Amino acid sequence: MACFFLSAEAEREYLEGEEPELTEFSSEYHEGQTLSDAEVVRRRREAERPVRGEEGFWYNLKRNMAAIWWALGRKEIYCVVIYFLVDGFTNPSFGDYSYFFLMNIIGVSKFMFAMITLIGSICSVIGVLLYEAFLKETEVRTVLAWNVALAVLAAWLNYCFAMRWNLEVGISDYFFIIFTDVVFGAITTAFGTLPLMALFAKITPRRIEGTIFAFLTGTSNLDAGVLQPMVGTFIATQIVDIDKSDDSMREKYPTL
User: Fold this and answer.
1) 256, 242 Cβ separation under 8 angstroms
2) Domain of residue 143, residue span
3) Residues 98, 220: one domain?
4) How many structural domains does the chain have?
5) Per-residue pLDDT for the chain (256 aa), expressed as one digit of tens each?
């Protein structure tokens, strides 16, 4: 936003009396474009620049808004936005109910819960290392497909834990919680978060990188932080009819 309010003098690229040097080199060549073609394009763009002293707020605003509108019309951007919206309404989150289940039914202390959260943060670092070592050259859609398959496995393990099947096979609650948190904490970072961030960086147009990247990450946060919990709360309260009492958690939590 600060760039909108720069004075015309502050936005000048050259000092008074200094003429811009035009060469055959350009930072914007396209595939199959020769250096001479790039020089012609650059000269045309220089000719289209406003007269010195006429730059400023309105020029920057119109140019940036036009670039943003053009970017939002690109298929790779609006399809990502549609994906997040669909994911938000079809992939509910029951984080609050899981917290009460751990605290009231399993009997996890607040200190232990904090330690589990700390372990999850450490696992995120491990996920970064995994992505850097094995996945950064892999196509994003392939990594996200693996992430969906692993999410199905994680959901099944959560169901096993809610049904207390881990105790039937001799696995303690703490071991099961920490193991799944370690494994799937790293997996979520390596197969879910970082590939999306890499995708955002690849599809963001130049000159408006900050705006579009912030828009995409904001849409991602809307998905994970607003839509998924909202849908999860609606399902829990209106369909499953669960509340946060111990008896209700014990009987109906596995349904979630």
Assistant:
1) yes
2) 69-255
3) yes
4) 2
5) 334 343 444 444 444 554 554 444 445 556 667 777 778 877 887 777 766 656 667 777 787 888 888 888 888 888 889 988 998 999 888 878 888 888 888 888 888 888 888 888 888 888 888 888 888 888 888 888 888 888 888 888 888 888 888 888 888 888 888 887 777 777 777 788 888 888 888 888 777 888 888 898 899 899 989 999 999 889 888 888 887 665 666 677 777 6
